[in-house]
Every structure is written in structure tokens, then in C-alpha cells.
Design a protein that fits this description.
Number of helices: 3
Strand content: 35-45%
Number of strands: 48
Shape: elongated
Helix content: under 10%
Distance between the termini: 83 Å
Largest sheet: 15 strands, mixed
Radius of gyration: 34 Å
Structural class: mainly beta
Length: about 675
């Protein structure tokens, strides 16, 4: 079927090597109808009628919509505006369809817009001998909706108006279904699912799916489950929501416990039980009742036991049922910088004041989850969180690494109350943030104002007020980003250590000329330009002791030459615009220069030259760690543990010539305590 503007009534397709009915909608007609390409655009055209048709005994699918179909108003079809079909007036309803004994699935829609399967009866599908080759998992079964694109907001419309499956019957197996080539029950490695939902082709797609007034019969576990989220996904994709209403679940017998779902990985999907019919009635000594607005999700570390429970009245393997009012929303993080850090897990966590989450090594109750990287998630990470809450995001490497850039996308349109606040923490103090085009220190006056403003992409950062990080027992600055419940717009976050004009380099205002010994008090006395840190400089003024001490920031201005004649304390930083040289005469004859980082900025750092090698023992020991903050220099973000020359600076380190650096050895027996070399060496 290549043009939906036709009427298909009462047809039977049987015994096909592929599909019974195939809706193959192209952007332009091909074959004999190619000449109509300017006025006929099937991919965006509405359906005339598909009613009362039957497909059975096909090798793959009874009904297939592939590759794409976005039905909309005929007058806009050739404008290729798929979102114009996102209203009930242009819903393509395929009605009164019967599909049985098809090898893989009774019906499948791959990439589609506002399409409903209405009054379908599907039975005994999915157990044939053959299957398509797919890159992800692919179970057999009744109906699959792979990737819906719809610009509407699911919370603004009745579920009966959503794309999806409505007023239908899905049967796992019958006695007749186990006969013939369709009766491979089950084929090894393949499960049978009643409804397979939402495997978004790109997580950036808008998507929704509704299921109303559907009966699932005979799904009792083992290979048979009524529902499967993200049926064609690779591992760790998914997190899309499907909405259920008026659902009936029946086992093969009256006393059998029906099987709702079998979850394969965390964040695979979200099933929203809007009226309690998916879970059904739960009974105790006081009677039986159903609970509406619960959600079915896979087990994951962000769930609290008090809110999301294992329910034993149904089979929900690897999953939990969350209390009414707990609403989940899909989020994705991609475009992470530094680029090399994107391949690590994304660590998502939340402090729990109720004590329902496990306690970490610092005795803090934290729910947390490591979200694996997947190249299929836009080279990023996909997950879902509970709305109305705050979550911390951090790069999951072994060391704390600040984000240099990241993007938030893949959001679902929901209600105002379904906001999320995402926190990122920084060991380096940032000057300002750029969120999309908003380039400033803050967009709201306080963190508490984020919720009251309700402005998507608003943020707050106070560089002067570090917060305690309970996950790492450290103190860091925090940026809080507001994700509106009613927006799905992407947000690119770019932290900036420097002002817009770039970071300045401290050059001193009271330089001193000449050559000085590090160990001499007069070298440092009243040298205000030698100590750029205002607090440290003030301490020296008050104490009268000016020599460099542990954690000092030391600056050697242009015109000043300092000779290192002792082992130094561990400096926070050493910034050289003048000269620094290791002594060749003072005893003892070995020194260690200790600092977190050393920056030679248009100056000279010398431990011997090529013409005059250094003949003593010399060591430069860098103590910086990834967790240490650092001062960015001009356009460079160099790190917290460096020996670097910039702006024409020169580092010269030359020791004695060691001569030949390797030599062959004579054969040695096992256990020998000496070896003999072929020639003499100096080492």
C-alpha cells in the first residue's frame, strides 16, 4: 500500500513470505506514479479507510507500517510538516483488523505519527520459524509500536485520543496456535509479548502512546508477558512513557497469575496505570480495591523502597510499582565536554532526607545510579527521574572532573508540577555560565526562586557560597538548572572560569630587580607583588613573616631572579615571570621544589643548560590533584597539576650526560644475584 488515500475493506492476506499488508509510504511516489511527485506525498497524507481486513500465516508480520507515516491534512502533505497531523481530526484509524498465526507479529508500526489501531484482534502471533535481522532485541507477539512522533502534550489530552492500541483483544496462544509452522512455541531465545512499546529512534523525538480498553489473555510468564518496553532498543536505551486505561488481564486459567512485564535493564520505560486497571485489584482482610495513577518501572537505584515497591499479586519481573503521584520523566545528557569523559558512566544521585535510601560511607542517605554511556543515545546517557525533585549529575570517572559543557535533551512535555532541578558541582570556581544564549552569573536571585519563576533553562550559581557534597565528603560550588515541566526544549550548559574578556595574569605592581636567594628573609620581606593572594599577603603583613609557607601562592615578577638553595614547602602555585634557578654551590647538594602547579609565564625556569648541565641532585615535585581548584590563565584551562611554559616562557632542565643508556647483558641463570653487561656504562 503506497498511497493511503484509498479504501481497503474486507480483504484477507494469507501465507505471505513477508507481510500480509504493508503500508510503504514514501516522500514521493515511485514507479509509474513518479510524475505526480509534486502533488502526491504519501508519507504525510491522511488515511481514507482500512477496515475489516484479516492477515494470517505470514512469515513475518500480518500488518506493517514501514518506514514512516505521519498522516495529516491533505493540503499540507507536500509541505512535509509531520506535526500538522498531531490532532484528532487527522488521526489515521485502522479498524476491525484480525491477525493470527503470523510468524513474528500481528501488527507493527515502525516510525509513525497520529495512528491508532482500533478494535484489533490478534492471537497466536510471534512463534514462527524466522525473524528479521535486528541490531537490538526483538521479541515476537501481538502488536508493536516502535517510534511515535507527536508534538502534543500527553497530559493535555484523553488517552483515547493518543496514538496506540484501543478497544482490542490480544491473545498469547490458543490450542490451534500450536499447530503448523506458526507453532514453534517458543522459539529458543525469543519471547512472546502482547504489546511492545516505544523504542524511540532518537531520544530527542517527541513521543506518546496510549492503550485503552484492551484485554490481554494468556500471558502467564516464562516466555509470555503482556508488555515489553523499548522492544527494539539496544541496552540502556528507552525511558519513554506509555499510558494505560481500562485494561483487562486474564491468565490462561482462572487461578493463574498473569504476567505484566519482564524488565531487562534500568530506565527501560515507564507504564502509567491511569485508572488502576493495569495492576488490577489488590485484596486484603478489609476487601479489594484498585489504585489509579501508579507507574510500572524497572528496578533502579533512584527509587525509594517506601515509594516504589515489589508487588507480588502480578508478575512484574525486575520491576517495581510506584505509588500514585509518583511521576517519571525522561531525560538525556549528551555533548559532554571534556570529550574523553563522555564515555564514563553518568552518576545521578539524590540526597534522601527520609532515610529511605542506602547510607554511604559518610553516613548520608543517598539514592544513586550509574547510567551507562551508549552511542545509541546520541553518544550520551538516557534515564528517567521522578518529577518535582532535585538530582545531582556528575561524570562517573574515578576522579572528580568538572563539566566543561553538557546538553540536556529528550524531555517529555508534561505539566507545570513536573519540573526537575539538575545540579552540577564544580571543584573549580566558575566566573559565569552560558545556558543556551543566556550568558550571565545567574538568571534568578536565589536557588529557591527557580521553582517560583518556573522559567525553563533558568539557573542559579553562587561562586562565593560552596556547598557540602555528601557523595564525596567535599565542599564545592553548585550550579542549579531548572527544567520546566511544560517544555521539552534542549539546554546547552557551558561553565566559564573566566570573564567574557578572558582571565588576566597577575603581573605584580611592585616588582624588585636583582638576584636573590630563596632562603634569605630579605628576598621576600615586604614583597607585596610576590604574594598575589590577598588573604595570604595580609597575613604576612600582620605577622611580619614573609617567607613562603605551605599552600602559599608565590609570584616572581619580571626583573627578579630567585635562586633555589633549599627544599621548599609545598606551594599552592608558583608563577614565574622573572627567573628561577637551582643553586650550583650551596650545600647540601640536593633540593626539591614542591608545588601544586608551576607556570612559567614569559619567564625562565632553569636547572642546568645544554652548555652547563646541572651536576647535583634536583627534584621538582608536583602535588596537585584532580580535585584541586586552579586559576585559569587567559584562554587556557591547564589543570591543577602542571609544569607549563606560556607566552614565550622557557623551561631548561639539563643533567649530566648518562652516556649509553642501554646495553646487552650476558646470559644469566635463574636465581643469579649478579648480571654482566657487554660493555661498561656510567649508571
Amino acid at each position: 500500500i503506497t498511497n493511503p488515500q484509498n479504501y481497503f475493506r474486507g480483504n484477507v492476506a494469507a501465507g505471505s513470505d513477508g507481510y500480509g499488508f504493508w503500508f510503504r509510504m514514501r516522500s514521493k511516489p515511485d514507479g509509474a506514479s513518479f510524475s505526480t511527485k509534486e502533488t502526491v506525498c504519501p508519507k504525510w497524507m491522511p488515511l481514507a479507510e482500512f477496515d475489516g481486513n484479516t492477515a494470517h500465516s505470514s512469515d513475518k508480520y500480518g500488518l506493517r507500517i514501514f518506514e514512516e507515516w505521519f498522516p495529516g491534512p491533505i493540503e499540507h502533505a507536500c509541505k512535509k510538516q509531520w506535526w500538522r497531523g498531531s490532532n484528532t481530526a487527522h488521526t489515521a484509524r485502522l479498524t476491525n483488523f484480525l491477525a493470527y498465526k503470523n510468524g513474528m507479529k500481528g501488527a507493527i508500526a515502525t516510525v509513525f505519527g497520529n495512528i491508532q489501531f482500533d478494535n484489533f484482534v490478534v492471537a497466536d502471533n510471534g512463534a514462527g520459524p524466522n525473524a528479521h535481522v535486528t541490531n537490538g532485541k526483538d521479541h515476537g507477539g501481538g502488536v508493536e509500536f516502535t517510534n511515535n512522533r507527536d508534538s502534543r502534550r500527553p497530559t493535555d489530552m484523553p488517552i483515547s485520543d493518543m496514538p496506540g492500541l484501543h478497544n482490542s483483544l490480544v491473545v498469547a496462544r490458543t490450542v490451534e496456535g500450536q499447530v503448523g509452522t506458526a507453532g514453534y512455541w517458543p522459539k529458543p531465545g525469543r519471547g512472546i509479548r502482547g504489546l511492545i512499546t516505544q523504542s524511540p529512534k532518537g531520544i530527542t523525538d517527541r513521543c506518546m502512546l496510549g492503550v485503552t480498553n484492551v484485554t490481554f489473555h494468556g500471558f502467564t510468564g516464562g516466555s509470555y508477558f503482556a508488555l515489553e518496553a523499548c522492544g527494539k532498543c539496544k541496552d540502556d536505551q528507552g525511558a519513554a512513557s506509555t499510558y494505560f486505561q481500562q485494561i483487562t488481564m486474564r491468565g490462561a486459567g482462572l487461578d493463574e497469575k498473569y504476567a505484566i512485564a519482564k524488565w531487562t535493564w534500568p530506565h527501560q520505560g515507564v507504564f502509567v496505570d491511569t485508572d488502576g486497571s493495569l495492576l488490577g485489584e489488590t485484596c486484603d482482610s478489609s476487601g479489594c480495591s484498585s489504585v489509579s495513577d501508579a507507574t510500572f518501572v524497572a528496578e533502579n537505584g533512584l527509587l525509594r523502597d517506601s515509594e516504589c515497591k515489589v508487588v507480588t499479586s502480578v508478575q512484574n519481573i525486575g520491576g517495581r510499582v510506584c505509588n500514585p503521584g509518583i511521576r517519571h520523566r525522561r531525560v538525556m545528557i549528551d555533548n559532554v565536554r571534556p570529550r574523553t569523559e563522555r564515555y564514563y558512566d553518568l552518576r545521578v544521585w539524590q540526597v534522601d532526607d527520609t532515610g529511605a535510601c542506602p547510607k554511604n560511607e559518610y553516613n548520608i542517605s543517598i539514592c544513586k545510579m550509574e547510567i551507562p554511556y551508549s552511542k545509541f543515545n546520541n553518544e550520551g546517557h538516557s534515564f528517567h527521574v521522578i518529577t518535582g525533585r532535585t538530582y545531582d549529575l556528575e561524570i562517573g570517572s574515578a576522579y572528580r572532573t568538572d563539566y566543561q559543557k553538557f546538553r540536556v535533551l529528550g524531555l517529555e512535555n508534561m505539566e507545570t508540577k513536573d519540573y526537575i532541578i539538575l545540579k552540577t558541582r564544580y571543584t573549580q570556581v566558575m566566573n559565569h555560565f552560558k545556558v543556551n544564549s543566556d550568558n550571565k552569573e545567574n538568571s534568578v536571585p536565589s536557588a529557591s526562586a527557580l521553582v517560583s519563576s518556573s522559567e525553563h533553562a533558568s539557573f542559579y550559581y553562587d561562586r562565593g557560597a560552596p556547598e557540602y557534597n555528601p557523595a564525596h565528603n567535599a565542599t564545592e560550588t553548585v550550579m542549579s538548572l531548572f527544567v520546566s515541566g511544560r517544555s521539552r526544549s534542549h539546554m546547552t550548559v557551558h561553565p566559564n572560569e573566566c570573564p567574557e574578556g578572558g582571565c588576566s595574569v597577575y603581573d605584580g605592581t611592585e616588582g624588585r630587580n636583582g638576584t636573590f636567594q630563596w632562603s634569605q628573609d630579605q628576598t621576600w620581606l615586604n614583597c607585596t607583588s610576590c604574594f598575589p593572594n590577598e588573604q595570604q599577603r595580609e597575613e604576612k603583613v600582620q605577622s611580619g613573616y614573609w617567607n613562603p609557607r605551605q599552600a602559599d601562592e608565590v609570584f616572581i615578577p619580571a626583573g627578579m631572579k630567585v635562586v633555589v638553595d633549599l627544599s621548599t614547602p609545598t606551594l599552592r602555585s608558583l608563577h614565574i615571570q622573572g627567573e628561577l634557578e637551582f643553586s650550583r654551590t650551596v650545600s647540601p647538594n640536593d633540593f626539591t621544589l614542591n608545588a601544586d602547579y608551576i607556570l612559567v609565564d614569559a619567564g625562565n625556569f632553569t636547572i642546568g643548560t645544554a652548555e652547563e648541565p646541572y651536576t647535583r641532585q634536583a627534584a621538582v615535585k608536583l602535588h596537585g590533584t584532580r580535585a584541586d581548584p586552579f586559576q585559569p590563565i587567559q584562554a587556557w584551562t591547564l589543570g591543577g597539576k602542571i609544569l607549563s611554559a606560556i607566552n614565550g616562557g622557557r623551561i631548561s632542565i639539563h643533567g649530566l650526560d648518562a652516556g649509553k643508556r642501554w646495553s646487552k647483558m650476558e646470559p644469566a641463570s635463574a636465581g643469579a644475584s649478579e648480571i654482566t653487561l657487554d660493555e661498561a656504562v656510567s649508571w
